[in-house]
Amino acid sequence: MAPKTPRTTTSAPAAPSGGVSRRGLLAALGSGAVGAGLVGAGVVAAEASARSSSGSSGAGGGSASVVPFHGEHQAGIATDVQANLHFAAFDVTATSRDELVSLLQDWTAAAVALTAGKEVGAGGATGGRPLAPPSDTGEAVDLHANRLTLTVGAGPSLFDDRFGLAAARPAALVDLPAFPADALVPERSDGDLCVQACADDPQVAVHAIRTLTRIAAGRAAVRWAQLGYGRAATVDPGAPTPRNLFGFKDGTANPAASDTATLDDQVWVQPSDEQGAAAWVAGGSYLVARRIRMHIETWDRTSLQEQEQVIGRTKGSGAPLGHAGEHDAFDARTLPASSHVRLAHPSMNGGAQMLRRGYNFTDGTDGLGHLDAGLFFLAYQRDVRKAFIPIQTALARQDALSEYLEHTASGVWAVFPGVPQGGYLGQQLLSV
Ligand SMILES: C=CC1=C(C)c2cc3[nH]c(cc4nc(cc5[nH]c(cc1n2)c(C)c5CCC(=O)O)C(CCC(=O)O)=C4C)c(C)c3C=C
Ligand SMILES: [Fe+2]
């Protein structure tokens, strides 16, 4: 049985490491977040209480389910892929740099509590004043941390003239070009900030995004969001590779989390990559998100042989065509000319790799009798100009898989470096 998480309510330290800052409180006061119960009477520092009261056991219970928030890099990138995703992109509505800083400080304090499996705000879900709305919405009580990670990045639009950040925009944070056959919905694309919440329980991930959205009131608003399930990638080659909605193993060739040399070379931004005011991004990464609708009804009418020719791997084992084992080495030039794996392979793209961390999604139907389902593609990389852009250019031009796909949403973000103890998300950027 997993150990019980104590129900003690602990005062968190003042922001940024554990509470809502005074400025955040004032912003909340001005925006109605107090009415939503995020701050209690006379309380500036938020309190975080442990999120378990019933002592329920299970996979998500105990400290083993906690992924450390602080570190050199943000968690949620080289972290073993959790089962569920709630991704949200935000428009920042703050009108000053100070307000933006206070938002990121308050998010940091909440993220520290949430990822530790604790309730947020004074009194948490049930310990506050009876006549005030609870600080924590409560749906994650008893669910533990469930390996929740929160990963935050800044989009190109944050670097306009609103916050004096134009000079700090990394050269590698380019706007993605339009690709042939893109069917992007602008309202479901881009965003000043993004938050990727991953957890082994869907309600924990949803609670986290809901909480950050409440805290942001008056300073940022959700622009678009996406739920995902059934991880469609892995960073652990020793674990069974999950499958996407076309039924193929997805993530086989991903870099392993333990392969730090490849991560340094391909995923983490290095100190030499950016100069001057943009040097803050070292230790971070670049995230490309694409909501890719998959025409599964058409795919399901396609023969097994054709499906395998399109992907370039066998459906059962995931082995490259002509090989026996999933992880067998192969020469991409021996695969069909327009197969997905051949075109996406590093040997065809100047050695470029990405760390893919996508999730399956199913968002009801399109009203025409087809499921609106697909892959929410998430890929972390050191430089989109060397990885996602050239690879997607080749895929859009030649990939046989494209016939079954429709890219409906897109975004690119510079993901902040990790947060040291006592620091806050994006501090490296906002203190330049
Ligand atoms: C621009 C990059 C990529 C997009 C967009 C993309 C979409 C996409 N992929 C699959 C299914 C599979 N992809 C696989 C491998 C693979 N895909 C990319 C890039 C993009 N995929 C890369 C770089 C690789 C690795 C190539 C290699 O090094 O061998 C595979 C094979 C298994 C694996 O290695 O993961 C599958 C299956 C879908 C369904 C999809 C869009 C919906
Ligand atoms: Fe792929």
TrEMBL record:
Binds 1 heme b (iron(II)-protoporphyrin IX) group non-covalently per subunit. Its main location: other. It catalyses: heme b + 2 H(+) = protoporphyrin IX + Fe(2+). The keyword Metal-binding applies. Residues 241-419 form the Dyp-type peroxidase C-terminal domain. Pfam families: Dyp_perox_C, Dyp_perox_N. It is found in: Cell envelope. SUPFAM superfamilies: Dimeric alpha+beta barrel. One of its GO terms (molecular function) is ferrochelatase activity. The keyword Signal applies. InterPro entries: Dimeric_a/b-barrel, Dyp_perox_C, Dyp_perox_N, Dyp_peroxidase, EfeB/EfeN, TAT_signal. Its EC number is 1.11.1.-. Coiled coil: none annotated. GO terms for cellular component: cell envelope; cytosol. Keywords: Heme, Iron, Lyase, Metal-binding, Oxidoreductase, Peroxidase, Signal. Its cofactor is heme b. Residues 74-229 form the Dyp-type peroxidase N-terminal domain. One of its GO terms (biological process) is iron import into cell. Belongs to the DyP-type peroxidase family. Involved in the recovery of exogenous heme iron. Extracts iron from heme while preserving the protoporphyrin ring intact. This is Deferrochelatase. The lineage of its organism: Bacteria, Bacillati, Actinomycetota, Actinomycetes, Kineosporiales. The gene is efeB.
